[in-house]
Write a structure and sequence with these properties.
Blueprint: H1 10-34, H2 41-48, H3 52-58, H4 62-75, H5 79-87, H6 92-109, H7 111-120, H8 127-149, H9 160-171, H10 173-182, H11 187-203
Helix pairs in contact: 1-2, 1-4, 1-7, 2-3, 4-8, 5-8, 6-11, 8-9, 9-10, 9-11, 10-11
Length: 206
């Protein structure tokens, strides 16, 4: 007797995907606003308009939800395309301008995701590993940018490793957060400041 094949309804799959997206979006907003430690699964369910049972069935535990938020943020960052574009630039000015614009756009667009992760670090059981996973591709992109700068004329005044660390200091999420969140700077002002600072520091006295 032939075995029955399970039938997966496309409409049901689409509905499930929408539910997962609503849960993740609601959780991201809550984590960014209140902090991971102060948010319950019941809170997430209420924000998404579903039951706590649906949250567990669709996404998992609160820790699972944060993991999915991190993975989704990395997948949607577009870092590979950005790096390919950057490696085609032939002047230091163009590279730094692209870094300022690109990292500003990424941090602004994924502000809630970064805030959700940032506020989870003090209380999450694997906070350090979570942050490393969330930021690995971002940091690698800036390290690649530093290497490219050292192939151009003139090269930065520092060693390549120091250049990479400096780019992370300026254009990494902490630099943006310090100006935009801690000091309430507009994104435009922060972008211009970071670009001026990077240019002056890397290419002063040349």
């Amino acid at each position: 007797m032939p075995s029955k094949r399970s039938y997966v309804s496309p409409l049901r799959e689409q509905a499930a995907a929408r539910t997962r997206e609503q849960i993740l979006q609601g959780a991201t907003e809550l984590f960014a606003d209140r902090g991971y430690g102060l948010v319950t699964v019941a809170d997430i369910a209420a924000a998404a308009g579903v039951s706590p049972k649906t949250v567990f069935a669709s996404v998992g535990s609160k820790s699972d939800i944060l993991d999915r938020i991190v993975d989704q943020g990395v997948a949607r960052s577009g870092h590979e395309q950005a790096v390919r574009h950057l490696l085609g630039l032939r002047t230091p000015e163009a590279v730094l301008d692209t870094l300022a614009q690109g990292t500003r756009a990424g941090n602004e667009a994924r502000f809630l995701v970064h805030e959700a992760i940032h506020k989870a670090l003090p209380v999450h059981e694997n906070g350090a590993a979570l942050w490393e996973r969330a930021m690995a591709a971002y940091r690698n992109a800036l390290t690649t940018a530093a290497g490219h700068l050292h192939t151009l004329d003139p090269p930065p005044r520092y060693a390549e490793r120091e250049t990479a660390d400096a780019l992370w200091f300026w254009f990494g999420p902490s630099g943006w957060r310090s100006l935009v969140v801690d000091n309430a700077w507009p994104w435009d002002r922060a972008e211009q400041f970071l670009l001026r600072t990077a240019t002056a520091t890397l290419y002063s006295h040349q």
